[in-house]
Amino acid sequence: MQTLLHVGRNELTHDEREVVKRAQRGDVAAFESLYHAHASMVLALCRRMTGDNQAARELVQDVFVRAWERLASFRGQSAFGTWLHRLAVNVVLERLRSDKRRPLATIDEVSLIPTRHEAGASSDARMDIETALSRLPHGSRQIYLLYDVYGYSHDEIAAMLGISAATARVQLWRARRAMLKVLGS
Amino acid sequence: MRGSARIATALALALLVPAAGRAQQGDGPVVRARRVRADAQLKVFYDAGSVRFVGWDKDSLVIRGRVRAGQFYLGGDSSSLKFGVEDHNGGTAVTSADLTVYLPRGARVAARTVSASISARDVSGWFYTVSGDIALAGTATSLDALSMSGAIELSAVTPWVRARTGDGRLVVAGAPEDVDASTITGPLVIATSSVKRGQLATVRGDIRYTASPARGAVLDMSTHSGAIELNLPRTASARMTLSSIEGHIEAGGVTSMPTAAGNRPMTFDVGDGASRVTARTYKGVIRVVAR
Amino acid sequence: MTHDTRHLTEAERQMVAEGLAGDASADVAAHLAACAACADDVARLKRLVTEARALKTMDEGEVASLWPEIRTRIDTAKVASIAVGEAERPRRVGWPVAAAAMLLVGVGVAGFALRRHTAQQPVVSASTNDVQLTAASDSVRLYQDEAQALLAQLELQRAMLRPDAVRAIDHDLAVVDSAIAELQDAVARDPRNSALRQLLAQSYRRKVDVLQRVGNAG
User: Fold this and answer.
1) What ipTM goes with this model?
2) Is the pLDDT of residue C129 over 70?
C-alpha cells in the first residue's frame, strides 16, 4: 500500500517539492508529513540491515533527525525518497561499523550456513524471505539487501562498504546461495 | 539442532509449561510453547473467535486455547514468529479459535483478524480487525488499534496510541499521552485527563470529552456534522477555540451563533488557559458544559 | 563455453537470474533448453531475485509511534528555527459585543471562570490567514492525491475482499464523500476561509484512513 507521498518515483512531484521546501524553511508539520510518507520504507530498511527490531526503531529516529539537519542539502535532483534512502543506508552502516560486537562478516563458504532444519526451525515452520534474511551474516545481508531488494549498483555498494565491485558481486552471489539454502528451496 | 541442545530445550519447556499451566489453566490446554526473545516480534492472523494477548515477565511464548486439529500453524524463530489458524486443505471454510497468548512484555504484536475479537494487556503493537472488537489495557510502549466496524476500548497506560474505526464506538480511557483517534460515524468518547496531545476526529459521529485537559495539553477535535460535547470540571484550565461554520455553539448556558463568514472562531479562556482546546465542526453543534 | 559438455558457470547462472545474460544470451538459452539441472537452478535463483524485489514495507502503524521522539529531538536540538510567527498566536475574538456580554453572564450561571482574550492579542492578519490557507490547501492536495491512488488500488483489490469488509468500506466512503462534497461547495463559496479548508483536509484524511485499512482487509 502506497504511503502519503509515493515512494520510488523518479520525479519529484510538484506537491512533494512544495512540502520539502516548507520543511526546509523550518516547517515541522511539513517535515512530519514527509516522515509519515517515508518512515515505513526507512524502518523496513533498518530492520533488514540490522536484524534487530530495537536497533531499527532507534535508527529510524536517527535517520530522520539527520534528514532534518541535512535538509538544506537536498536539491531536488532526485525524488526525496531516493535521497532519504541513501541517507538512511549511510546512517545504518555507520552504526554497524561502530558496533564492534558485529563485524561486517561476509560469507566465505556457503556450506557453513545452516539449513532451515539445522537452524532449528520447527517442522511446521513457514520460512519466509524476511526470516531467511535475518540468518545471513551481516555483511552479506547488507550486500544482498542493497542490490536485490533496494536496487543499488555494484559500484555504489562497493563505495558504501569500502570493498571492490568485484568483491561485492561475488558476495552477492554467495548471499543468494545462502538464502536458497536457508529457505530450503 | 544438536541432540544435547534438543534435550535441554525439552527439559526447559517441560518445566515451563506446567508452571504456565498452573497459572492459566482456565485458558484451555497448551497449543504451543516456545522460548522467545524478550523483544520478539509476533504476527498473528485468523478469522473468527477471539484472541487475548497477555504480557508477562518470562522469555517464552505460550499459546493456550482450543483450535481444530490441523488448522494451527506456528513458524519462525526466537526473534520473529508468526502463527495463524487456517484451513490447510485449501478450503474456504471460516476458521475459528479462542486463544490466549502469553508473551514477553517487551515483545511486539501485529494481529489481524476478520471477526475475532482482540484483547491485550501489557502488550504493545498493532491490532487490526475487520468487524471484531478491540480492547487494550495495561502498560504498553505504543498501541495501534484499527477496525473497519468494530468497537474499540482503550484503557492502557502508554505514551502513544492510534485508533480508527468506522461505525464502532471508540472509547479512550486509561492514561495515554499522545492520542490520534478517529471514527467515521461511531461515537468517540475521551474519558481521561492524561492526554497531552490529542487529534480527535469523526465525520458524523459525536465526540464526547469528559475530563480535565492537562496543563500544557494541546487537543484538536474535528467533526463534519457530529456534535462535540466538552464536559469540563469547574477547575478546568483551557484556552478554547471553537468554530462551527453552519451549526451553533453552546457555552455557559448561552447559545451563540458566531459569524460563519471569514475566520471568526469563538475564543475564550477557562481558568488560566493552561491548555489549548480547539473544536471545529462544519454543521454540528459544540457544547461546553460545566460538571 | 561448450554447452553440450559443461554446465553454466556460477556467474552465468546468476546473470541469467537477473536477466543480464547479455551477448551470450543465445548460447545460454540453448543450454538451458537442453540442461534440466541448470534450468532448475536458474529458476530457483530467478524466484529468489523476484521475491527480493517485491519485499513489502512494514506495517505503517509501527512508524507512527516513533514520531513524537523525533519531534522532541528536533525541538530540543533547535537545529533549525521554526518561523511560524503570527500563526501561532491566538486570535482576537471577533464576536459581537452583545454576544460577549451574554456569554459573560452565562459564565456566572455556569460557574466557569471565563476570560475573554485581552485587546493586546494581535488581530487576525491577512498574512496569518494566507499562511493557514496555504498549509490547509497543501494538505488537501496531498490527501487528494493519496486518496486517488488508494482508490485505484481498492478497485483492483475489490474482488478479493471479503463481502463484509466491502460493505463497511463502501458505507464509510459514502459518508466521507458526502462530507467532502458539502465542504467543497462551501469552499467554492468562501475560498478564503481557512477553517473550511482545514475541515476539508480532515475529511480527506478520514478517506485516506478508510482506504489504508482496505489494504489489511484482504
Assistant:
1) 0.82
2) no
